[in-house]
Amino acid sequence: MKEKLVVVGNGMAGMRAVEELLKLDADKYEITVFGSEPHPNYNRIMLSQVLAGEKTIDDIILNSREWYAENGINLVTGDEVTAIDRVARKVVTASGVEAGYDRLLLATGSMPFIIPVPGHDKEGVIGFRDIADVDAMLAAAKSHKKAVVIGGGLLGLEAANGLMKQGMDVTVVHLLDSLMERQLDKPASAMLKASLEARGMTFLMEAQTSEILGDDRVSGVKFKDGSQIDADLVVMAVGIRPNMALAQSAGLHCERGVVVNDTMQTYDPKIYAVGECVQHRGNCYGLVAPLFEQAKVVANHLVEMGIARYEGSVTSTKLKVTGIDLFSAGEFNEAEGDETLVLQDPAQGVYKKLVIRDNQVKGAVLYGDTMDGTWYFTLLREGTDISAFRNSILFGQHDLGDAGHGDSSASVMALPDSAEICGCNGVCKGDIVNAITTKGLFTLAEVQAHTKASSSCGSCTGLVEAILASTVGEGYDQAPSKKGICACTEHSHDDVIAAIRDQGLKSQEAVRKALDWKTEDGCASCRPALNYYLLARWPGEYQDDAQSRFINERAHGNIQKDGTYSVVPRMFGGLCTPNELRAIADVCDKYEVPEMKVTGGQRIDLFGVKKEDLPHMWADLNAAGMVSGHAYGKALRTVKTCAGKTWCRFGTQNSTGLGVKLEELTWGSWMPHKFKMAVSGCPRNCAEATIKDFGVVCVDSGYELHVGGNGGIKVRVTDLLTKVETEEEVLEFSGAFIQLYREDAHYLERTAPWVERVGLNHIKTQILDDADNRKALYERFKVSQKYAQIDPWKARAEGGEAHEFTPVVISA
Amino acid sequence: MSNWIEIVALADIPKLGSRVIKTDTMDIAVFRNAHDQVFAVKDACPHKGGPLSQGIVHGTSVTCPLHNWKIDLTTGEALGPDEGCTNVFATKVENGKVFLALKAGEVAA
Ligand code: SRM
Ligand SMILES: Cc1cc2nc3c(=O)[nH]c(=O)nc-3n(C[C@H](O)[C@H](O)[C@H](O)COP(=O)(O)OP(=O)(O)OC[C@H]3O[C@@H](n4cnc5c(N)ncnc54)[C@H](O)[C@@H]3O)c2cc1C
Ligand code: SF4
Ligand code: FES
After folding, report:
1. Confidence check: pLDDT of A302 > 90
2. What is the CA radius of gyration of chain A?
3. Is the model's pLDDT at A765 over the cut of 80?
4. Buried b (16+ CB within 10 A) or exposed e, A211-225
């Protein structure tokens, strides 16, 4: 005979525990579930969206009545359990139903805290917890005008937003001077308040409610300072209290909640508890992510596997008000001795703050751009040492490094498989990718169904869609949400590329006009992108605009943190001569270069050069036959080579010579992002060709061509494009691949994310299958090189752009 | 007392570009925008002292090259609720020449 499990509480934690249990052993128990609400289990989190009119009750049902039936679960709704008889091991309900148990699971959730001021029990005063509350609010919105929400926390603001959407005049009353003070610091809180005010919400800050006015129904709210406001509806959202009355009356040990150990067991070994009603290691939780972790643990113990332990959770929060992106986690208010990193871009409504202690992220507040929330949260939970990238950490994971622009789809690609995407359900990127590829999923709904990702609070939906789009590639039919390049425009990179091509737009002004730019001369994000797109599309015709280039490309050196520059002369294929080395040594002496270093790109970097000295130094290097290495540019960087057949006993081809030819063909070329190549003389691959944008591995019978590799932030091994037999073919294929990348990719998108976005097949179709197209691409590349292979150093050493390098001196 | 000092010809500052003016006490960045308005601010970002002269100019602001703060060139203030401000100097353009108003102490150390 099966053992009996009784679950009290038909909510999110209780039913998740049952689902986990069924996964482990569907036959162990005969299960009875009691719920005091008249509904099957629904997604409580989504009540905010139901109230805002963005979802219906049907949309948010998690387990339908059929589901209970299919799984043989006996469901009793609309009946409250009023007593537990621990000796007879049975529960009793209000209507007198009794059920015996071998194991009992309490999942009674919590209750909204109603401030016990005079008048709190009048009609029209409610909490925000269940469907009945939402129904009451929707009804009030039909016949009444004025709503007052007491409590400016997460729940209060979501309630206020919903009521406003239903057409009510809403005033939010808050006891303190800043909203959501448990999740936000003051600047983020001020930005939130400003944008809610802009939508029409009214706030009464630092106001303490003293009385609810009215006869039977509420008519107003009175405050401690004697002032009062009118109200037809009062929603109290000042906090929740674990619902432990039933457990207490049964004599179970309770403090702030029902006390449980790491196996979710109460002081009675037959009785377990999960969800908001419990207190674990002194903590009570009010978000679903911890409850779902608890559900896994309790299921494990109910089936007597006995290995899982719950050790507490670190939580993060997002506000679910459409159009407001907000993320918070950890200790976001710095303590003494902590450091804070802050980025503010008020023009785009972005605020990011990280609290750092001992080189670890301790807390984060993001407003406006929450794309990197998951990444910061992962760093926080794993205690990662961030010293290696702390200078750029605020720009997000995708952009550890130079220019600091980000692109959402690319940052999803950059996430490691272990990055948690759905905080509510603890689903990592790897799980999602795995489910998509092994189960052949194509839609968001399928991913939700198979992984549970994005099925609770929904704020990770964008991330899940981006993963879906990048994993499925062209098969994903719902167009990935298009995002404007920057705040100056609603048009995406693809729109801009197409408009320049199809409408023959030849200047930045023309593009901005044709595409209704909101700013006259763009900004630091879109100007470099437009400049690149025009340059790549109209070589020789479009006049490069220095003022639309990031300083490194304008000054042809990497800006250093003290405002000096670095100089890297090109060394084709890593080869060099005594004369070149002498010239480098001489300029270092002459211009007192503080440091020189052999780079990872097989050449030499001279650091700390004063800007004024640059043209003179370049002139000296030019005289020795050296040109700019473009170590600063979104351009062809280096071609690494190995010793090859000339010297190496394993070499199969002249890898060094081929590397030089490749670099001679491609140097000077501007790209969407930096571009690196390598040629290895045999599969031992000493030049690391399989983590380059374009890599060649020589074999006895010819040359393997590899594309889309990246050795940087997220290592990506190349895909094999094809094998060819001659050096001429290597040059043609590399030129064609580069040109396709130049014409197709988004500005600041390296080949690795580009290949993943468009799919290797797209590239093969264009380059392998269609020889005419390949040749045409190669020709276009060579044409554009005619205009690009002009040494920028020489031009400037001869006096070009002199104003850039010559300060005006005024002296008394 | 400030006095007007002629610094460069307007044509010697590129549109949407800048020039650096070195005085005995500090570097000053002089910008020219799309409408030939000229602005001068101390060449040090309120964030970490980045050379604003090296940034990208748009509208009446400049984006700092080091960490992308946007500085309003008319007030010298970082755009937004953030505190942070760099000194602003008055400028004028007459007959194609750019003049900068400096107090004596700002030129000599
Ligand atoms: C000098 C050098 C380090 C060295 O001493 O070896 C270097 C220096 C910088 N790298 Fe690098 N990288 C250097 C080789 C590399 C390599 C190794 C290689 O090329 O074989 C890699 C990994 C390979 C790759 O790119 O796939 C590398 C991956 C990065 C990344 C991460 C790129 C990525 O896509 O993940 C950045 C950040 C970025 O570009 O956004 C970066 C950015 C930078 C910047 C430009 C940081 C910045 O924004 O100021 C550094 C400039 C220093 C300066 O002021 O001159 N550097 N960097 C190397 C120059 C090679 C050269 O001769 O041109
Ligand atoms: C409007 C709103 C928005 C939210 N937004 C978020 C969010 O964005 N992110 C997030 O993580 N969390 C959010 N939450 C919190 C989240 O919904 C809760 O953490 C979660 O529902 C708690 O699950 P639970 O099973 O412990 O409690 P509940 O889901 O409340 O389930 C408890 C159930 O037990 C029933 N019950 C209680 N006592 C008895 C009894 N004696 N007999 C029978 N039945 C009983 C109750 O009626 C209830 O149905 C939100 C909550 C609300 C109300
Ligand atoms: S050189 Fe490269 S790895 Fe080294 S600190 Fe700079 S960006 Fe980082
Ligand atoms: S120094 Fe200007 S933004 Fe950091």
Report:
1. yes
2. 32
3. yes
4. ebbbeeebbbbbbee
B80/A contact by beta carbon, under 8 A: yes
Q: Which CATH superfamily is domain B2-102 in?
A: Rieske [2Fe-2S] iron-sulphur domain (2.102.10.10)
Give this prediction's pTM: 0.53
At B69 the pLDDT is 84
Domain boundaries, chain B: 2-102
| pLDDT given at position A410 | 55
B46 lines ligand 4 (CB under 6 A): no
Q: pLDDT higher for A401 or A665?
A: A665
> How confident is the prediction for chain A on average, in pLDDT?
90
A13 C-alpha to ligand 2 centroid (Å):
8
- Residue A109 · residue A9 · CB < 8 Å: yes
Query: From CA B70, how far away is CA B75, in angstroms rounded?
Result: 12
Which of A351, A748, A803 is the best substitution to test chain B (most B C-beta atoms within 10 A)?
A: A803
Residue of A187, A519, A528 lying closest to B81 (CB–CB): A187
Across the range A706-723, mean pLDDT stands at 91
- Pick from A47, A180, A285, A288 the residue to mutate for probing ligand 2's pocket: most ligand atoms within 8 Å of its CB: A288
Residue B15 touches partner A, C-beta closer than 8 Å:
yes
Distance CA A767, CA A575 (A): 30
Report the pLDDT value the prediction gives residue B2, as an integer from 0 to 100.
67
B52 — pLDDT class (breaks 50, 70, 90): very high
Please tell me if residue B11 touches chain A, with a CB cutoff of 8 Å. no
List the strands of the sheet with B2-9, edge to edge.
Answer: B2-9, B97-103, B91-94
